[in-house]
Specification:
The chain is an alpha/beta fold. 41% of the residues lie in helices and 16% in strands. The chain has a single domain, classed as TIM Barrel (Alpha-Beta Barrel). It has 12 helices and 10 strands. It binds NADP nicotinamide-adenine-dinucleotide phosphate (NAP).
Length: 276
C-alpha cells in the first residue's frame, strides 16, 4: 500500500481507503468480509457517515473492525447537514461512536448548510476534539471559499481534509481545490472515484485501450490516476471481496508519462460519457 500524510498531523493514511455508502444494502456477511479483506490489504482508512443507511453503515463498520488493532485504523464519519447546530453536532458524534463502538479519527461536516452558522458547528467539533470523542476535523463538499472560511474560524485545530467528488470523469477539483490542498497540505479525499461504478461499466474507449496496454483493470487505472497526485487519497466503495482485492492492486505502480498524457486528454470523450 502507498501512504499519504493527513494534513500536517503525524498520521499516515493509505492512498486507497474503503467507502461504505449503501454497503448496508449488501448481505451483511459479504459487506463485513469485503471490509475485513480491505483492511488486511492495507486499506485501513474507512469512510462512513451517520446518513449512510441512517446508522446502518456505521454499525457494519463497527462490526467489521472488531478483529483489528484500532490504532492501525483511520475511521472517518460525517455529521449530516441538518445536524449542524451546536447541540446536534455533539449528539450526532456520540450516536456515531455508539454505533461504531469506538472513537472517530476524522469527523467531517458532510455538506455545508448556510442555515447553521459554521462557527457554531466548528466550536462543537473543537470541543469534541478536547473531549477525546474525535481526533481531527474535516469537511466535505466545501468550495474553496467555504474551506478557507472554516480554517479561519477554527481556534485550536486545522481542517485536515476536504472530501469531494473527484474521478477521471469529474475533474472539477483541479480548478482550485486541488492546487490549494496541495499547497496547504490538506488531504483531498476523492469520493466516487469510479463514478459510482459507471467508469467500469461503460468506460471510454481510450481508457479501455490504456488499461489493456498496462495489463491493469479499468478500475485500477482510474484509481491509480487519482492516487498518483500528491495529497490525494481515493475511497472506492466495494461490497464484493474481488472488487476490494482488485482496487488494492491500484497501488504500488505508476502510469508512464506518455499514457498519462493520453489519459488526461479524455476531455472530449468525457463530455460524451453517459450519466446512467
Ligand atoms: N462526502 C460525500 O458527499 C460522498 C458522496 C458520495 C460518496 N462518498 C464516499 O465515497 C465512497 C465511494 O463513492 P461511491 O460509493 O459513490 O462510488 P464509487 O466508489 O465510485 O463506486 C462504487 C461502485 O463501484 C463498484 N466497484 C468497486 N470496485 C469495483 C471494481 N474493482 N470493479 C467493478 N466495480 C467496482 C461497486 O460495486 P460493489 O459494491 O458491488 O463491489 C459500487 O457499485 C462512498 O462509498 C462514500 O464512502 C462520499
Amino acid at each position: 500500500m502507498e501512504y499519504e500524510r493527513l494534513n500536517s498531523v503525524e498520521v499516515n493514511i493509505p492512498k486507497i481507503g474503503l467507502g461504505t455508502y449503501q454497503i448496508e444494502l449488501s448481505p451483511r456477511d459479504e459487506a463485513i468480509s469485503a471490509l475485513r479483506r480491505g483492511i488486511e490489504l492495507g486499506m485501513t482508512l474507512i469512510d462512513t457517515a451517520e446518513m449512510y443507511g441512517w446508522g446502518r453503515s456505521e454499525e457494519i463498520v463497527g462490526e467489521a473492525i472488531k478483529p483489528f488493532d484500532r490504532e492501525e485504523l483511520t475511521i472517518v464519519t460525517k455529521v449530516w447537514g441538518t445536524n449542524l447546530a451546536y447541540e446536534s453536532v455533539k449528539r450526532s458524534a456520540k450516536a456515531s461512536i455508539a454505533r461504531l463502538g469506538t472513537y472517530i479519527d476524522v469527523y467531517l461536516i458532510h455538506w455545508p448548510n448556510p442555515s447553521y452558522p459554521l462557527g457554531e458547528t466548528l466550536k462543537a467539533m473543537e470541543e469534541l476534539v478536547s473531549e477525546g470523542i474525535i481526533r481531527y476535523i474535516g469537511v466535505s463538499n466545501f468550495s474553496l471559499g467555504q474551506l478557507k472560511e472554516a480554517r479561519n474560524l477554527l481556534r485550536n485545530n486545522d481542517i485536515v481534509t476536504n472530501q469531494v467528488e473527484y474521478s477521471l470523469r469529474v475533474r472539477d477539483p483541479e480548478a482550485d481545490i486541488l492546487p490549494y490542498c496541495q499547497k496547504e497540505k490538506i488531504t483531498l479525499m476523492a469520493y466516487s472515484p469510479l463514478d459510482r461504478g459507471r467508469i467500469v461499466k461503460r468506460p471510454p474507449q481510450k481508457l479501455k485501450v490504456i488499461a489493456a496496454r498496462l495489463g491493469k483493470s479499468i478500475a485500477q487505472v482510474a484509481i491509480n490516476w487519482l492516487i498518483s497526485k500528491p495529497m490525494v487519497v481515493a475511497i472506492p466503495k466495494a461490497s464484493k471481496v474481488e472488487h476490494v482485492e482488485e482496487n488494492a492492486g491500484a497501488a504500488g505502480w505508476r502510469i508512464p508519462q506518455d499514457l498519462m498524457t493520453e489519459l488526461e486528454d479524455l476531455e472530449e470523450e468525457r463530455a460524451r460519457w453517459p450519466r446512467s
